[in-house]
Amino acid sequence: MAETKTDDGAVAEKAEKPKRRRISKRKAVEQHVRSYFDAMARRDARAMAEHWSADGVGDIVPVGIQRGRDEIQAFFSATFAALPDAETTLTRVVAGDSSAAAEWRLTGHFTGAPFQGIEPTGKPVEVRGLDLIELEGGEIVSLTAYYDGASFARQVGMLPPEGSGAERAMMGAFNAVTKVRQAIAARTSS
């Protein structure tokens, strides 16, 4: 309580008004992103979709584009079905007034349903990624997710281990085919 002097010199206590705290735009963006990743950590695709605008666009760079809540929910439902023990950890959020960058890590085992046409192998998966998120009116309108798709393919056994003899043989075969194509193109253009 604050003290003030009255006209006659007496000291009177005056109740202070409680200070109103306004949430900053950046803090609101950060809270929305954290809430979205909390839903992901719970493997709740429906709750994730509720964070999006009706016509939001998700660009999962190694996979493709999802348009609207239904496609976004379907993509994450398929992801969680493929990795039924998936654990997602949000490691960092850098928020601005209407956008944020979110760094994350997903771990689990590819023991569930097929993912993007790939049959489950039972292998452990650890993926690190970065999402660039734009919001309007408290909803996600755009999200671009970057992660190493080749690393995922190696972990599930679709590509050979990095530096292995199988990888060197595959690269050698690829380079041989490329050289043959270049030689054919050079002959047909002359």
Task: State the gist of this model.
With 190 residues, the chain is an alpha+beta fold. The chain is 37% helix and 33% strand. It folds into two domains: 137 residues, Nuclear Transport Factor 2, Chain: A (Roll), CATH 3.10.450.50; 30 residues.
Question: Keywords, please?
Answer:
190 residues; alpha+beta; Nuclear Transport Factor 2, Chain: A; 2 domains; 6-stranded mixed sheet; 5 helices; 33% strand
Q: Per CATH, which architecture of the largest domain?
A: Roll
CATH class of the largest domain: Alpha Beta
In whole angstroms, the N-to-C terminal distance is 92 Å
- Oligomer status: single chain
Helix-strand layout with pairing:
Elements (H helix, E strand, L loop, with lengths): L1 E4 L5 E4 L10 H17 L3 H5 L2 E9 L3 E4 H15 L4 E9 L3 E11 L14 E13 L2 E9 L1 H8 L8 H25 L1
Parallel strand pairs: 3-8
Antiparallel strand pairs: 1-2, 3-4, 5-6, 6-7, 7-8
Give a written overview of the molecule:
With 190 residues, the chain is of the alpha+beta class. The chain has two domains: 23-159, Nuclear Transport Factor 2, Chain: A, CATH 3.10.450; 161-190. The chain contains five helices and eight strands. The protein has helices spanning 25-41, 45-49, 68-82, 149-156, 165-189, and strands spanning 2-5, 11-14, 52-60, 64-67, 87-95, 99-109, 124-136, 139-147. The strands form two sheets. It has a six-stranded mixed beta sheet. The protein has a two-stranded antiparallel sheet with strand order 1-2. It is elongated and about 105 Å long. The model has no long low-confidence stretch (mean pLDDT 90).
